[in-house]
Specification:
This protein has 4 domains: 60 residues, Ubiquitin-like (UB roll); 167 residues, Threonyl-trna Synthetase, Chain A, domain 2 (Threonyl-tRNA Synthetase, Chain A, domain 2); 216 residues, Bira Bifunctional Protein, Domain 2 (BirA Bifunctional Protein, domain 2, 2-Layer Sandwich); 92 residues, Anticodon-binding domain (Rossmann fold). Helix content is 35%, strand content 28%. It contains 20 helices and 33 strands. It binds one RNA strand of 75 nucleotides through strand 12, strand 13, helix 8, strand 25 and strand 28.
RNA sequence: GCCGAUGUGGCUCAGUGGCAGAGCAGCUGAUUCGUAAUCAGCAGGUCGCCGGUUCGAAUCCGGCCAUCGGCUCCA
């Protein structure tokens, strides 16, 4: 007999060889029915596993993230089985679970289209209805290679060949279908209930541009239809928050065919932008920065010196002036270097923090452009901090604090990554290691969790990246802090030290918003267009009920204008319900309805875009309230 | 850049070989109304662009451009 301990502390004895699913059934049939996978001795295990040793057991269902991932992974296998049935010459690549579903990559002579989804889903449902047990088998390397080679599964063969010598090679079988897989899986195909294929995409084998492009089919799955409906509904809602759509609907910004990747900012979008910049300038002044502006076009020599010519050429635009080569700046740093060099600097001046709202242009591949999130011209809220080596950690920590101050103000949650030396980088490994360690130390001293992103640093230095989420949960890098020992070297930057001699400063490149454009994109989606009042392009709209109140309405308008509140009046001859609807759709924070009663009492009937009708109150009172809200940058 | 899909009025979309349509928005007029759409009328289109097939192309074919979803790449 074996002893099994459960999560609640209970211990029970079972005969050797019992499956984990049978154990679950003995405890509760309901639990067994909802079970997806087991956690045995802390490791995920198939419910079909026969127990051979004492251990702790936890049975988890779809509500557990680990189980959800197994459920989707099994769904991917069913997708592959269906595709193999329908197009037998298809070769299988990989099929993992992902955040909200799964995908499988195929190499097939058939080109999949969305019209195939119905057919594939029907076949998947047949496989689910057949309730094939999903059986794990372990093979030795030679047998596994032979097995997949015979079936012409060249990608599987490649995967096996690259598995480490000691790796256990397992396959999972369901009906006629066998796939190389570490597992675990649900015990049988019937455990899957509702599946839906969602999209198609090309994807390079092993994620490398040099390899063949495979066809990826994305899907998702749930144990209940209602959960799928809920998911699809949320997706629809998220699409309504898409900044490209809201940008147009609210008259904020637009990207046109005439300028792919070059966004236009409309009057209302400019208000948001200018408010963000105003806040930025205030905060940076307080944090000891001084602002500069460097040219958009600078000579080729400069870019050769900085290393951009060698390392960043494919992303740059060029022009000729009087037969001389010039480049449109893709980064602000070289210009910032030249500014530093205009004077001799004493160690007493350091850290020297120079900030620049710099418009940069980068040639991005056409396929990556995405509204304001990924463009070819954007404004970085850049700064270059020149400092003594012993100031590095404190300066990095100062920037981290500033990022947090900004992001918290908008109620953003963010995650942090540390990107290390890329393939095409300048400088020695020693310098890179020193710089990377400094960034890591600053993060650790701040107690921030971070993920290491190997090889993703800038060509001149490692970086800390701050990522924000859009409405569809895609993450975008916004803030970044990059430590650079190389540019100061290349530009021969110096300061006069205490000893009277020349020394080399260290430099930090950093942005908080990242790009104003991207940040506004994220902001728009985050707030669903309902910007906090301090940012809202129109903060108040006055809605007279009839023409009789137009004079009073205009008086209210003037009074609010005198307080620098962005206010307008809707004096069209429409019913108040119509005006309210339009005001709501424009996400205007406050609609002030003025009728005879208000005109008589000098009051306004306040309607908040989220809280609805707040009732009448004296205009003075409203003024005080909204001014406080704006000054406090309340979200 | 690569894979797939899409492109019809400002917006959302119908039209799949035979006279370019609807709703919303816009304009004009009427209406003067109390918390999410008042009524009527008018105007608005090189059907992404270029070429081909055809008596005839928004519709079929080819090329290009842009957009969308991914991949790769990055703020």
């Amino acid at each position: 007999m074996l002893k099994i301990e459960f999560k609640n502390g209970d211990q029970r004895e079972y005969p050797e060889g019992i499956t984990l699913l049978q154990v679950a059934e003995e405890i509760s049939t309901k639990m067994a029915k909802n079970a997806v996978v087991a956690v045995f001795n802390g490791e995920l295990a198939d419910l079909n596993t026969r127990v051979q040793e004492d251990g702790s057991l936890e049975i988890i269902g779809f509500e557990d993230e680990r189980a959800r991932s197994v459920y989707r992974h099994s769904s991917a296998h069913v997708l592959a089985q269906a595709v193999k049935r329908l197009w037998p010459d298809t070769k299988l690549a990989i099929g993992p679970s992902i955040d909200k579903g799964f995908y499988y990559d195929f190499d097939s002579s058939h080109t999949f289209t969305p019209d195939d989804f119905k057919l594939i889903e029907d076949e998947m449902n047949k496989i689910i209805d057949a309730d094939y047990p999903i059986i794990r088998k372990e093979l030795n390397r030679d047998d596994a290679l032979k097995f997949f080679a015979e079936r012409n599964e060249v990608y599987k063969v490649e995967l096996i060949e690259e598995l480490p010598e000691e790796a256990v090679i397992s396959v999972y079988q369901q009906g006629e279908f066998v796939d190389l897989c570490a597992g675990p899986h649900v015990p049988s195909t019937g455990r899957l209930k509702v599946i839906k294929l969602t999209s198609l995409a090309g994807a390079y084998w092993r994620g490398s541009e040099d390899n063949k492009m495979l066809q990826r089919i994305y899907g998702t799955s749930f144990p209940q239809k209602a959960m799928l409906d809920d998911y699809l509904h949320k997706l629809e809602e998220a699409k309504k928050r898409d900044h490209r759509r809201l940008g147009r609907e609210l008259g904020l910004f637009v990207v046109l065919e005439e300028g792919p990747g070059f966004p236009f900012f409309l009057p209302k979008g400019m208000i948001i932008r200018n408010e963000l910049e105003k806040f930025w300038r205030e905060e940076h002044r307080k944090a000891g920065y001084h602002e500069i502006r460097t040219p958009i076009i600078l000579s080729r020599d400069l870019w050769e010196k900085s290393g951009h010519w060698e390392h960043y050429k494919e992303n740059m635009y060029f022009t000729k002036i009087d037969e001389q080569d010039y480049a449109i700046k893709p980064m602000n740093c070289p210009g910032g270097m030249l500014v530093y060099k205009q004077n001799l600097h004493s160690y007493r001046e350091l850290p020297l923090r120079t900030a620049e709202m710099g418009l940069v242009h980068r040639h991005e591949l056409s396929g990556v452009l995405h509204g304001l999130m990924r463009v070819r011209a954007f404004t970085q809220d850049d700064a270059h901090i020149f400092m003594l080596p012993e100031q590095i950690i404190d300066e990095i920590k100062g920037v981290i604090d500033l990022v947090d101050r900004f992001y918290s103000l908008f109620g953003f949650t963010y995650h942090v990554e540390l990107s290390t030396k890329p393939e095409k980088a300048m400088g020695s490994d020693e310098i890179w290691e020193m710089a990377t360690k400094a960034l890591a130390r600053a993060l650790e001293e701040k107690g921030l969790d971070y993920k290491v992103n190997e090889g993703d640093g800038a060509f001149y230095g490692p970086k800390i990246d701050f990522h924000l989420r859009d409405s569809l949960d895609r993450t975008w890098q916004c803030g970044t802090i990059q430590l650079d020992f190389l540019m100061p070297e290349k530009f021969d930057l110096t300061y006069i030290g205490e000893d009277g001699g020349k020394h080399r400063p260290v430099m930090l490149h950093r942005v908080i918003y990242g790009s104003i454009e991207r940040f506004i994109g994220i902001l728009t989606e985050h707030f669903g267009g309902a910007f906090p009042t301090w940012l809202a392009p129109v903060q108040v709209r006055i809605l007279p009920i009839t023409e009789r109140q137009h004079d009073y309405g205009r008086k209210v308008l003037r009074e609010l204008e005198n307080e620098d509140i962005r206010v307008e009046i809707d004096d069209r001859s429409e019913k108040v319900g119509y005006k309210i609807r339009e005001g709501q759709m424009q996400r205007i924070p406050y609609l002030l309805i003025v009728g005879d009663r208000e005109a008589e009492q000098g009051s306004v009937a306040v309607r908040h875009r989220k809280q609805g009708d707040l009732g009448p109150r004296p205009l003075q009172e409203f003024k005080v309230m909204i001014k406080e809200e704006i000054a406090g940058k309340v979200i």
